[in-house]
Each structure stands twice: as C-alpha cells, then as structure tokens.
Write a structure and sequence with these properties.
The complex is a heterodimer of chains A (about 290) and B (about 120). Chain A is mainly alpha-helical and about 290 residues long. Chain A has helices at about 1-5, 10-20, 30, 40-55, 60-65, 85-100, 135-145, 160-170, 180-195, 205-210, 245-255, 265-275; strands spanning about 125, 130-135, 215-220, 220, 235, 240-245. Chain A starts with a helix and ends in a 14-residue tail after the last helix. With about 120 residues, chain B is mostly helical. In chain B, helix 3 (about 80-90) packs across helix 4. Chain B has a single domain, classed as Cytochrome Bc1 Complex, Chain D, domain 2. Chain B has 4 helices and no strands. The chains are: A mainly alpha (about 290), B mainly alpha (about 120).
C-alpha cells in the first residue's frame, strides 16, 4: 500500500491507462503460428501447450498445487483466538451456510442440491443481468432475495469462510465453467484481455508471471501456472485468514504498481471468469494450498 | 602571456585527465555500494527477485526469471557496451518487447543516478 502512495502521481497515468497497453507476447502462441484458436476450449488447450513447453514433463494436474511443492498446506498450530486451519475455516463457513434467515430459510435453499456440486460451475454468466456471477455474488443474491443483509465480497472474515465452504461442497468435482453464448463470450474475452494487459509502473501482466514465466523462481518462490490456480481458491494464509481469488488479483496488480480494481468489480469478475475457464476439467480442492 | 595561458591550459588538462583516471574508480566503488542496496530493495530495483548473482557470495539467490548476472565487466567491456547495459535497465522493452523486466527509467522506478549505481554494482559481479 505504501508503494502505491509513493507512486500516487504516477498511478493515475499508469493504472487505468496502462490497462490499455496489451501485452501480446505472453499468449502469442494463442494467436500466432497457424490457425488462431477461436473457441475458449481451444484457447485453453493452447495455453496448456504453451505452459507445457515452459515446464516440460508436467501436466495441468501437477500445476494445481502451484509451482512449489512446499506450497501444499501443512498443519498449522491452532491459535486460541483464530481459526488457523482449513477445518476451522470450513466450520465457520458451514455455520453461516446453515444459519436460518428470519423467514426460516437458509442459503442452502437457494441452490440446487442444497449447494452440493454447484460451485464447480462458477463463475456463471447471468443472461438476464448480462453479467458474470461469482460465488460471492450468488451468495449475496440469495441473501438479498430473503431480505438478509448482504456480505461484502471483500469481507475476508465472513465471506471468506462462507465462499470457501460453498466451494468445498464441490471438492472432488471437476471445474466446469461454461461460456455459452455471445454475451458470455464478450465477458470471457474481456477477462482474457485483462489477463494479458501490462499494467502499472512495473509494466507486468498476469500472463507475464503465470504463463511466460510459470515455473520460474521469483523472490525464492515458484511462479504458479495460470491453469490450475482456480480450483484451489480461496486459499488459507498463515494465521488462518482466507484469501479470496480476487484479493489475490488485487495483490498482483498492486505488485505491478497499479491501482487495483475493487473486489466484485466487473473487471475482476470478468478476469475471474476467464481465469476459471482456463482450469476447466481440473478437480476442486478448496483451501488445499496455503499461501 | 600567451605561453602562460598555454602552460596553464596544459596544467589543467593534465590535472583533469589525472582526476579522470582516478575519480571514476572511486565513484564506481562508492556507487556500487548504493547500487547493491538498490539491487535488492523491493520497492526500487528488486533485481534479485528475478536474477541470480553467482559471484556475490552473500547474495547468490535462486531466482531464474532473468539471466544470472556475472562477469558483467567482461560482457560489457566498452563504453558503448556500458551504455547498452544502462539503456537495458532504463527500458528493456526497447530490445525485447516481451520482457517482464520493468522499465526502470522510463517509468521512473529508479532515478538516473540510481541506475548508474546499479550499473556500478553490476560491474563488480
């Protein structure tokens, strides 16, 4: 945050405007050398091939845990005041999930099969509202429908465990995000463009690290591949705090010296839509990775 | 009068030439220390996040996004090479459009003096 303050005069020029500076090089294999991959599925396959060239002998299932084997969650000692392991986080989420509304309903009633195996299909495109709906938005839509106060998507203390629990109801399921029509494709394409755009003072894109240099070591840590990231989010941070995917997007943008878009903004929702699609077919493992 | 002026001119020329021979080394040493700090500082160069420095015993690192930085003085031995090295720090994208290296000078992450300091440090590797 301090760095952003230092960069304040510059970020106006760099942040939003620099989003217009498209990185083409990182995903060039997607659009060069022969036929242009035209469908999201083709683009995902092309991205997998690109990543495999940089990380020979690996496959998408290997990338789920991140580039570093040490990223796999370890048992963390319990703290008296805070939940500090995934079971505690999920217990908090379940409590909120099962909580009865004033009208006697609960979150479970808003989803098919009381929410089991549902989150594996998110983010979804809502054709009526013409927008991408994330897990957090779906929870809030349910709360609003039943006259309950909504929870800020960025509320790590409450929305974190709640969204984690909802996603955990899909653990073991394959992620199946759909881009089903032209309007959905527009959102997907907007997310792809965001993924490739160089931003901020550091002039980096998501693709710079998580495609172009996936598997390389940056600041003593392996850079994870873009494919596989979505199935393990949200993640558990040391100390028990839940880190949502969009909060991580913000961190990356800040690291790049750009002012991040808000959690729940259309820009980050579209980015999440594209990003999740790239992990289609991989098995959901909520809170499996510590960051 | 004319010969005195010529003598003074020669004296000054020799003085500055001699200073020119000695000062850059002293300056380089002084700047290299600052450059080494800038090289690692996360909000400035942060170069060690991407580059190994195999010949800096206390700070070799494991990063492998960029090439390892060693034998710089041999690789960039002429003034033109040195300028090329400096320019690559200022804006690497001019020679490599797909680089992940931040444009330190172009985006004012580092001042011109700080870039010089880092070049001085690199030359010690």
């Amino acid at each position: 945050m301090t760095s952003l303050l230092i960069l304040k005069p510059f970020r106006l020029a760099c942040s939003r405007l620099m989003f217009g500076c498209v990185l083409g090089a990182c995903l060039l294999p997607l659009v060069s050398r022969g036929q242009k991959p035209s469908t999201p599925d083709q683009q995902r396959q092309s991205l997998v091939q690109t990543l495999q060239k940089g990380m020979p002998g690996t496959n998408p299932a290997d990338w789920v845990q991140g580039a570093s084997p040490s990223a796999v969650v370890q048992a963390i000692p319990l703290n008296a005041d805070n939940a500090t392991n995934s079971a505690d986080i999920l217990a908090i989420g379940k409590k909120a999930w099962d909580r009865k509304f004033k009208n006697g309903k609960s979150l479970a009633i808003c989803f098919p099969n009381t929410g089991k195996r549902v989150a594996a299909t998110y983010p979804q495109f809502d054709a009526k509202k013409r927008q991408v709906v994330t897990v957090e938005m779906a929870i809030n839509n349910c709360l609003a429908l039943h006259g309950e106060p909504e929870i800020a998507a960025a509320n790590a203390a409450l929305m974190g465990p709640l969204s984690a629990y909802f996603k955990s109801l899909s653990d073991g399921q394959r992620l199946t995000v759909r881009v089903g029509n032209v309007q959905a494709r527009e959102k997907y394409d907007a997310g792809l463009a965001m993924f490739q755009r160089r931003i901020g003072q550091q002039d980096a894109a998501c693709a710079s690290c998580h495609v172009q240099h996936a598997g390389s070591i940056y600041q003593k840590q392996g850079l994870s591949a873009a494919v596989g990231q979505a199935v393990t989010w949200p993640r558990l941070q040391p100390g028990g705090r839940v880190l949502g995917l969009q909060a991580q997007f913000q961190r990356c943008m800040q690291r790049s010296g750009a002012e991040p878009f808000p959690v729940g903004s259309e820009e980050l929702n579209n980015l999440e839509y594209f990003h999740a699609f790239m992990s289609n077919g991989l098995t959901m493992r909520t809170l499996a990775v510590q960051r | 009068m004319v010969s005195e002026a010529i003598t003074r001119g020669i004296y000054l020329l020799l003085t500055f030439s001699f200073a020119g021979l000695c000062a850059p080394q002293a300056l380089a040493q002084a700047n290299a220390v600052a450059g080494r700090a800038l090289f690692a500082e996360e909000r400035k160069g942060n170069c060690s996040a991407c580059h190994k420095t195999p010949t800096d015993a206390s700070r070799i690192g494991a990063s492998n996004i960029g090439p390892p930085l060693e034998a710089i003085r041999q690789k960039y031995s002429t003034p033109a090479d040195r300028m090329r090295l400096r320019d690559s720090i200022r804006d690497q994208s001019r020679v490599n459009a797909s680089t992940i290296m931040p444009p330190y000078g172009k985006h004012r992450i580092l001042t011109e003096t700080e870039i010089d300091d880092i070049v001085a440090y690199l030359e010690t590797l």
